[in-house]
Automatic annotation (TrEMBL):
This is Nucleoside-diphosphate kinase. It comes from Chrysophaeum taylorii. InterPro entries: NDK-like_dom_sf (IPR036850).
Length: 268
């Protein structure tokens, strides 16, 4: 079990959400690097350039925005929830959103409320370390059939998220589960499982089973740790790039190792 104080003090939830959290609480707006397409969409939607908004001091990360607007995470989330995609909310990329609240622009304004659920007084998480033979259950089926869809209403019958959804009263939950609060999280790949064990359980690539397997293939530990932040990585010899996590998602351990080695060798 992880307690509220430990989760907060050690930034465990911020590490867990990686780039999403970094854009909301760690990086200043000038440190962000939206794509040319995203910058173009920002200008088309709001009538000023991204650089002009930065120069005018109009862009805030979520943590800064709470101070600017005089609200807490829940208050910011309430304002953020009123935004509409394509009207006053622009998606810059995966887990990277910019919304206009009043006269300012806020990055990932949803995050502070999400973080607060983990860091509120009395909050805690319970975790399980599980393993199984690949020939008995694929990673994709583990997520799709054992865990269930992100939207619990769409989760497969008998899955954990379906169970939580249909029995939330009996389980003593305060509200009906939804896509954001669906009761259970599970790693999306063997690599993400390694990253999450290193964060929450203080494992290292040298002590984690999957981490040791990557090291044995010649993937350097600094690269493995850099990958924990889900960077955009080259995925072919032509220079196409994609999210590291997305590239390895739902792969079984052997295929995940094979892909990880291939990606590592593309950039020596």
């Amino acid at each position: 079990m992880g307690s509220k104080s430990k989760i907060d003090e050690e930034s465990l939830v911020d590490n867990h959400y990686g780039a999403i959290a970094a854009k909301a609480v760690k990086l200043l707006p000038r440190e962000l690097a939206p794509s040319a397409k995203a910058v173009g969409e920002f200008e088309a939607k709001f009538g000023l350039t991204w650089s002009s908004a930065l120069d005018a001091g109009l862009v805030y990360n979520a943590k800064e925005a709470c101070g600017k607007l005089g609200v807490d995470g829940a208050g910011l989330d309430k304002k953020w929830s009123d935004l509409k995609r394509g009207v006053d909310l622009v998606k810059f990329g995966g887990g990277f959103y910019c919304g206009k609240i009043g006269e300012i622009f806020v990055i990932n304004g949803f995050y502070m409320a999400m973080r607060g659920k983990f860091c509120a007084p009395g909050a805690s998480i319970y975790y399980y370390l599980v393993e199984w033979p690949t020939n008995a259950l694929s990673w994709a089926d583990f997520r799709g059939k054992v865990l269930g869809a992100t939207n619990p209403l769409e989760a497969a019958a008998g899955s954990l998220r379906a169970l939580v959804y249909y029995e939330w009263h009996e389980l003593g939950l305060e509200f009906e589960p939804n896509t954001g609060d669906n009761g259970v999280h599970a790693s999306a790949s063997p690599f993400e499982a390694c990253a999450e064990r290193c964060n929450w359980l203080k494992a290292t690539p040298a002590t984690d089973h999957f981490g040791k397997a990557m090291l044995a293939l010649g993937i350097p530990e600094p690269k493995i740790r850099a990958w924990f932040d889900d960077p955009q990585v080259p995925i072919d010899a032509q220079g196409a790039t994609a999210s590291l996590f997305d590239t390895l998602e739902d792969t079984n351990a052997d295929k995940c190792l094979e892909k990880a080695k291939f990606l590592s060798d593309l950039v020596a």
